[in-house]
Design brief:
The chain has 636 residues and is an alpha/beta fold. 32% of the residues lie in helices and 24% in strands. The chain has 18 helices and 31 strands. The chain binds coenzyme A and adenosine monophosphate. Coenzyme A is lined by residues 142-143, 167, 169, 174, 284-285, 289, 291, 313-315, 337-338, 340-341, 344, 369-370, 506-508, 573-574, 576.
Length: 636
Amino acid sequence: MSRYHQVYESWKSDPEAFWRDAANLVDWTRPPQQIFDADAGIYGRWFPDATCNTCWNAVDRHVERGRADQLALIHDSAITGTVRKFTYAELKAEIVALAAVLSDAGIGRGDLVVIYMPMVAEAAIAMLACARLGAVHSVVFGGFAARELATRIDDARPKAIITASCGLEPGRTIPYQPLYDGAIDIAKHKVETVIVLQREQQAADLTPGRDIDYASATAKAKSDARDIPCVSVNATDPLYVLYTSGTTGQPKGVVRDNGGHLVVLAWSMENEFGVKPGEAFWAASDVGWVVGHSYIVYAPLIHGCTSILFEGKPVGTPDAGTYWRVISDHDVVALFTAPTAFRAIKGQDPKGEFVKKYDLTNFRTLFLAGERADPETIKWAENQLQKPVIDHWWQTETGAPITQNPVGLGSLPVKYGSPGVPMPGWQMEILDDSGHPVPRGTLGNVVAKLPLPPGSLPTLWHADERFKSAYLAEFPGYYKTADAGIIDEDGYLFIMSRTDDIINVAGHRLSTGAMEEVLSEHPDVAECAVIGMADPMKGQVPCGFVVLNAGVDRPAADIEREIIALVRNRIGAIAALKTVVPVKRLPKTRSGKILRATMQKIADREEWTMPATIDDPAILEEVEVALRGRGIRPLR
Ligand code: COA
Ligand code: AMP
């Protein structure tokens, strides 16, 4: 029997009492007297009078209370074939040493540090060292190109960057120096200090006066026996800023505060994920994404678990058995990954031959999120693993699940295609475009009643107005998730699609608007549109449509190649744009809005109807013909 309904009702009947109780999971330097201040911030603030330190809660308190010799972090690199393990005491020593280096570079409470790292243990250490000092980190995914990094530097205005000499993708080394040097050149904001971790696969040249060698500086801090205590900050002070795709090329800086984040993550590990302190938890994501922040670094450590930080891919490093190898080598009890990873594994090992080779006895639960989990993939994983597979739904903005099947409280019946029921803190509703509630089972805008729970974004970095207009203005009194979905008669949510121009490629959130900005930079492009097209492995992939300038008579294939290279160069390979289709005209409404949703339906071979507001119906047929010419065969 699940305790979910009872727990959810207890939150609903007295939210402040619920969060006061949950706050006991956290060490405070000044415990909260007030739980929520409705008058503070934009929609209120949680734990407004409390103070704390996130690094203390993630590391020091475990060292003090019997976990000093327990493994805290395991870096398992399937790419290099190496494993590094850190006990809580060792992790603390690494964090203190880097905090000393940062402190010597003038970084203190409230200063911002950009972390641009591959999947190495030092990425987590860097985040925690910032947290220790009360500095604010902003991790930029290591697969983003120089210009994306520069955009974030200009918005975040960091005092320092922590980076590495290279990243490793299967079969290739990615030198980071041209990327961070390039970004620093492009950015208007000037960065004073760059701390560079030299990796043996490819070294970087250090710029005198700017760059610090990570290894020698931290070694010196250790030999000097430097002690850097945790700095107490306000619970409402920012812990980090994480940029995520918006509808334009200007990403949104999602702010996460210290106190609410600690409370909600601590609560989620036991109650939602059903994991106990001392157990090994693995989120196979990247520290550059929110999943990596919450469930590689912070939540497992706050909860006293052993966290796995994995450098590799579900397939090809070296094979489709890697995930099972990691689970069995490190005695992982719960894995959290994106459905794409399972589609990739299933594609290469449909019969699950690799699964049988490993001992998965202690493995209990597979958690999937980041994109829609198709029932077929869930059922395949259930069959292979013979363990529960739990889909759950959240966003960078929320920092923790909005809906889930909370195995820690006792599992609810699984409904395939649904990421579960709302977690405490979340009152979800479905509204039509005019803001009216729709009957159960009807598709509409998924919104959350304000206030958002602890751990959710209080605002966007230095952009309160953008926060209000992007999330709160359209449906007064609610947070707009920008997802479309359904709530069924049992209160389960079904998330169907985004309502904006965001697409989800291999579990990565990308803005078609940002890609369109790059396409239109090409000198031969007059107009363009980018849509997300269904893809059997990645869920969606982008597809660009371009109208060329009059008089351009160069081969279309050359232009397509150049555009693909431009997107790779400006955004990064992660954008995965591989198809650009030249068309004579773009379909638009009479008021000039490009009909991207209809184009997407055509590309996905879904049924579509002619929009009443279309300017010239013949253009959609031209789009169909152009897609057919590329082997993408529309219906009709
Ligand atoms: N640095 C540099 N380049 C990177 C990168 C990084 N950190 N991460 C990805 N890339 C590159 C890849 O090498 C690839 O380049 P290519 O076009 O030259 O092949 C491109 O970006 C696209 O990467 P990806 O989307 O990872 O596709 P893939 O074909 O290499 O791998 C999967 C496919 C399914 C194995 C992979 O997408 C995957 O593991 N997905 C799980 C996603 C996930 O965990 N998301 C987190 C949300 S929970
Ligand atoms: P991100 O901010 O990168 O975590 O992406 C958030 C978006 O991913 C959501 O708004 C959804 O569109 C999508 N998403 C995440 N998890 C799920 C899920 N379990 N089911 C369906 N869509 C999901």
